[in-house]
Design brief:
The protein is α/β, with parallel strands linked by helices. The protein contains twelve helices and eight strands. It has an eight-stranded mixed sheet, with helices on both faces. The relative contact order is 0.09. The structure holds ligand FVH. Residues 24-29, 47-49, 52, 80-83, 86, 89-90, 107-108, 133, 136-137 line the site of ligand FVH.
């Protein structure tokens, strides 16, 4: 395994050397550890609450008594903790042990936090790869879903045989923040869809329609509507919102949806936010242009889209 990641064996405590050290045994860290063990990898585990090491140890993992001991035990250190502060706090306790090892962070962070972690790791002689897990714990063993990676290409290439026991990986380039950004952008769409569904379910509650009834109608409708995404994307990438055949912003006025929500005593916030974006573009004189024009109210100034280079590396 050491030759696999192109590293020498750690000099500290070689008798306890393992392939991977997993810091964090929550739902996700435990699932990742189980997959590694099932694939025949040796794993040292550490968790803030030591009781949680019992399951992985019964499965064949070795428990470390401290973060330092865990980091020293393997050439590859994986963090799967709550958030960025817990990663920095935990690794900070073993900073002196990190030199020459590879750090794979699978904790959700913002893009800038991932970049900051990368700089911090480099300062401690550690190659850093960041991963965004797009799967729930139950999907790890069956290799469903996906894990996006960015950061050190050398680390990604060297770790490939190890990463192969988890859901399919996709490398997004050497900017450590990229995987996180793509992941969070995807989640933004998902949460707004869920919120839209819950808002609709609240609107029909006065009819006595259960949320389950509504979900049975909403799911196939939303599923059919996702076919529109590619067309919207083409207009956005082309930058011409006057392309014929689109639903115009004037036609997309949603004030009746806002009023209907209010009539039902339902907070219109989710749909009112969309209406506000439409209104801004209409007020700016773009009412005859297509619905995707609201992208212009959202995109960062000075950044244009339309480049195929924006995908995975
Ligand atoms: N679970 C999921 O479906 C999602 C899927 C997408 C990616 N996420 C991210 O994965 C990270 C870990 O998530 P998790 O599901 O394992 O989370 P928990 O079960 O809540 O476990 C949290 C672990 O973090 C430890 N921890 C918390 N704070 C600290 C701290 N200050 N210092 C050290 N460790 C800390 C906690 O330890 P303990 O409470 O057992 O002592 C757990 O090991 C996460 O970034 C998700 O966004 C999962």
């Amino acid at each position: 395994m050491y030759s696999m990641v192109g590293m020498s064996e750690p000099t500290r405590n070689p008798a306890r050397s393992t392939d991977v050290s997993m810091l964090g045994l929550g739902a996700m860290g435990s699932a990742l550890t189980t997959a590694l063990l099932d694939a025949g990898r040796s794993v040292t585990v550490w968790n803030r609450t030591p009781d949680r090491t019992a399951g992985p140890v019964a499965h064949g993992a070795r428990a470390a008594g401290s973060v330092r001991e865990a980091v020293a035990a393997s050439p590859v250190v994986v963090t799967c903790l709550l958030g960025y502060p817990s990663v920095r706090e935990t690794l900070g306790r073993a900073a002196g042990e990190l030199r020459g090892r590879t750090l794979l962070n699978l904790t959700t962070t913002t893009p800038n936090e991932a970049r900051e972690l990368s700089s911090w790791a480099a300062g401690h002689g550690t190659d850093h790869l960041d991963g965004a897990v797009m799967a729930v714990p139950a999907m790890i063993g069956p290799r469903e879903g996906q894990i996006l990676y960015s950061g050190s290409r050398a680390a990604y290439d060297a770790l490939l045989p190890l990463l192969d026991v988890w859901p399919a990986g996709e490398f997004h380039g050497e900017d450590a923040g990229r995987a996180s950004l793509v992941d969070l952008a995807m989640l933004s769409g998902m949460y707004q869809m869920f919120t839209g569904f819950l808002h609709g379910a609240a609107m029909v509650a006065s009819l006595g329609m259960s949320a389950s009834d509504f979900a049975a109608r909403q799911a196939p409708f939303l599923s059919a509507m996702t076919h529109e995404l590619a067309g919207y994307a083409k207009v956005v990438d082309g930058g011409d919102y006057t392309v014929p055949g689109q639903q115009s912003l004037d036609f997309s006025d949603l004030s009746h949806l806002v009023r209907a929500s209010e009539e039902e005593g339902v907070d219109p916030a989710p749909i009112a936010a969309v209406q506000e974006l439409i209104g801004r573009q209409i007020a700016a004189g773009h009412g005859s242009e297509g619905f995707p024009r609201i992208y212009e109210s959202l995109r960062p100034a000075g950044v244009t889209t339309g480049s195929a280079e924006g995908g995975a590396a």
